[in-house]
């Protein structure tokens, strides 16, 4: 490109350059090369306008390192920064939610004597509102009003929404007054905007108060505003209030099928199916034709509750009424037919959709293929996979996994192997630009993936792939897989023994250089994994080994080194490793980002973890299921909890078509219930039902979380909502209800529940036994607690680590230290081995009893078992020793802590 430009002999002026850069907006790397070539190659001098354009392109691409460099170059070239420069900077950083940087440039603009104009103010207020910084946004808004800068309707709405979410109702009212008095916006329109903002922010009480206030003032709102309010009320579970609003609307004949549909949706969200159908019948009697979405929601509900005949009848009614079906309705009906083994009926609808040239979505394919796999119709499932490939649609891992599982259940092991081969090859081609030298043209990808599907489709069950085909797959896999080199176990043991010795790094380095070991990435990775606790040594080893001839680190080795640095809270070195990884051309995968996010989050730095999550997406790396899971777990944790961000991230995870696992759901729901976000917990439950979780399991997860959060009455109320499958649900939630009742002091009810389940043939679970042991120890009834422990073992119910921990805590609270130690010793010898939580609990109990020196011995025990003590463990022991007047020993403990912490970091 540069050679051709030089040969062309063009004369460049700033106007032409600016236009060329603007044309290159979507190919920022080319724009930057052209920009730099002009500067160094043809004697062209850049102007403020060309710098502004280039800064704008870099800012929109979120390349802020380039933005900062351009700013420095601008100063070096003596190009003045005008109002446009500052606006671009503030807007770019604001859009990326780097609010601190946006505010920094706003202040710097003022110091440079450049007065902010309307565009600058709008950019900064926009950024602050989107970041949820309501108070700061309000300050800038007040400045705009004082300077008589016009505020448009979009900015007013943005401010109202932000302030409503923040709960600043008085400020919302203040903005409303300004809209009427300053901007002369009609009163009705202003109140409409305020009502909408309350509903968006789920401030339902405030929305209802405003509605009553408007009725008293005889101000009538548009039907659209009533619709927003009804939707908000139903989403919040307040259907009786929504019906009251509908009553007001009926007085003006403003109720239509859409409003009825919203109420029906509200009933369905609460699992009040009978009420939903009653209202459905009533609206038809009143002459309203239900919408397609209402029919679809009811169909989904009927299929979910296995009312197949009734669902088919409703679908026929929908067709008879001439309702235009959408892809969602057809997906629900096809899935329902397959669930009831009427695959031919489902296929007729599918063929009809193809004839009508309806565009199939990823969701359609994934749902239908999943249902086909469940009923072991793998041929039809693979046919749909082929259709997806023809449509240039990526086939997700969950789809392949479902088909492979179905083939395995059918006994088609060989076919399952072929589909696994297909899956791996498909993943290879989907990597596109991540694989060096791979053609990423759509036609190429489509052709190759089609051939893979056809390879399976046209082979007979007993026919094997040719040697050429197998060899081609091997070559392809080498592009993305590890080289497969082995290492000698003796070499591994030798290196690990060096790192576990008391030598300093220079002595270790000498020992390593004397070894005649051939270092491979696999060997280095295993060394890093096994010697994580010796962070200083292995991180220096990591730095040393990369300088060896014929050795190169891989993505996996970098990921492990980043993890070790993060575990030691050496975030500076962690960041350096990440940058080095990029410089050396190693692929930064979603695992790399996940590790960094996890390490920041575990240290309680959830703001930085969230920023890294945003950076990950800006970098073009798609978050994996693990990324979402660990981020949500961190946001739900006690340290640095951010429940609103957790809800937002969970929704993103669902929208990205990742199904959360049971562990994540339990943590997320418990956080919601502890914070009183019950409507969000219900939404989660509904999404689980849609994702394939059974009704009893979905309900049980919410009920357990409510019990753990001390919301027993709400848990009991939710239990009554389940119909036919209540018996199954009772078995799931049995332990949680007993635990909740005991915590609430309702012992008789808890014991009655245990007896009832026994009569029904359900034996007490380990959860129930453990809850009873904890309760009786708390009541100082040690004989009763030990009797239950003895009984559970006789009944063949194996105690868990939680049970043994409860025994230790119970003994310690009763002052029976010897018995507690015997239980702890038994765990170490026979299992289950004590984990970090058990050690921490035992340390705390010993210190509280004035036996801090004994607790100090547990630190060495933890290290011997590969468990690194936390800062809290050391702090508890130091406080205990100081209370006991053993300051010298406390200082020794602190020195040990500092030595351990520094021994895990790259630079001691």
UniProtKB/TrEMBL annotation:
| SUPFAM superfamilies from the UniProt entry | TPR-like
Q: Which Gene3D superfamilies match?
A: Tetratricopeptide repeat domain
Q: Which PROSITE patterns match?
A: PPR
> Origin, by domain of life?
Eukaryota
Question: Source taxonomy lineage?
Answer: Eukaryota, Viridiplantae, Streptophyta, Embryophyta, Tracheophyta
The answer, when asked if Coiled coil is one of the entry's keywords, is no
Question: Which keywords belong to this entry?
Answer: Repeat
NCBIfam families the record matches? PPR (TIGR00756)
- Pfam families in the record: PPR, PPR_2, PPR_3
Query: Which residues does UniProt call coiled coil?
Result: none
For this chain, the family text in UniProt reads: Belongs to the PPR family. P subfamily.
Residue spans of the PPR repeats = 82-116, 117-151, 187-221, 222-252, 256-290, 291-325, 326-360, 589-623, 624-660, 730-764, 765-799, 800-834, 835-869
Q: What is this protein called?
A: Pentacotripeptide-repeat region of PRORP domain-containing protein
Q: What InterPro entries does the annotation carry?
A: PPR_P_subfamily, PPR_rpt, TPR-like_helical_dom_sf
Q: Which organism is it from?
A: Aquilegia coerulea (Rocky mountain columbine)
